[in-house]
Please model this.
Amino acid sequence: MSTLSGKRVLLIIAGGIAAFKSAELIRLLRGAGCGVTCVLTENGAQFVTPLTLQALSENKVYRELFSLTDESEMGHIQLSRAADLLVVAPATANILAKMANGLADDLASTVLLATDKPVLVAPAMNVRMWLHAATQVNFSVLRGRGVLSVGPAEGAMACNEYGFGRMSEPAEILTAIKGILLAPQPLAGRHVIVTSGPTHEPIDPVRYIANRSSGRQGHSIAAALSALGARVTLVSGPVTVPDPAGVTVRRIESAAEMLAACQAALPADAAVFAAAVADWRVANASSGKIKKQPGAAPPGLELVPNPDILATIASPGPARPRLVVGFAAETDDLLANAQGKLKRKNADWIVANDVSSETGIMGGAENEIHLITSAGVEDWPRLDKQEVARRLAARIAEALR
Ligand code: CTP
Model:
């Protein structure tokens, strides 16, 4: 049987009736050899006593953000640093809302905002609170950020209602925790650079040239590589998608900055160039805002080529990552163009996709790719960008074995 010996969970217990099940969860975790430290919210303490949690976890229970003794023993940053996984059980509608909105008004929410460790939530609330649009939006925001979840289950509730909202049983939460903590980490010890999003090329201090890239695919790849144990440096253009947990993010605007950030991140075992880099920048960009001159012709933009980041990093030499993966966004002659890019840019693989507007791929949630390697072309089905990312990360792990 699998064991969690040597693993450490920080268990955050919020204020719901299901808090009584957390005692059983601690017992199961301890039985599996897992270290458990509890953070109890003020409302959580209405349902379960710190003494019970302390006795079962055999550890101090942390409750206050501004406690001199707690902070000197183990501050909120160290609480997360010392854990392999943060588990919020029960995760009430309130704590999910705080997490989704970045509130940090007590120890539990502050630890959750400050952590870079994986987070698993076990929602528990009345069915109407669970189904409320606000909770559903908060939950999907959190899932989109990579927060993991177990449940809620369907069943009878303490409030005499029936439906979804019951916290999963402790045994199921334990199974989910094992799934996370014992997941294979084939990329442990590997460093991967990922570029993502668009670049912005300035025209003047207020105007720029950009493109429609959302960063969804690149960010999902960074998250999937990190989930397989890689140390990931994500070099990202301006995007609104959230930073993946556990990944080092370098924010840049222009292609020149993206190249400099990639070079600074070397050495790397692999590099994935998912960014939609502007091919040209404005050579005559103005340092002051360009004003309209009444009656004058519009200003002319003089475009000069940007450095090709993929081709630069993939050029032969001691700093070249072992595996270099490029993307080819095409609207015509997809495979021929992509194969041309593989050779021209000295990439090992090209992930080719059709970005014609009718495919809805650019900026959308799904992708349909063709993986071009020296062995040939693989046509993948249309998949959610996160699933494309997971499959690609698994292939990268195989290639680096
Ligand atoms: N790329 C890059 N630096 C650039 C341009 C592109 O690193 N200055 C990378 C992209 O991240 C992608 C691959 O090169 O991995 C192909 O990008 P794409 O825009 O499809 O190709 P281009 O080289 O720009 O060719 P074209 O515009 O002719 O399609």
In short: The domain at 8-181 is CATH 3.40.50.1950 (Rossmann fold). The chain is about 35% helix and 25% strand. The mean pLDDT is 93. The first strand starts at residue 8 and ends at 13.
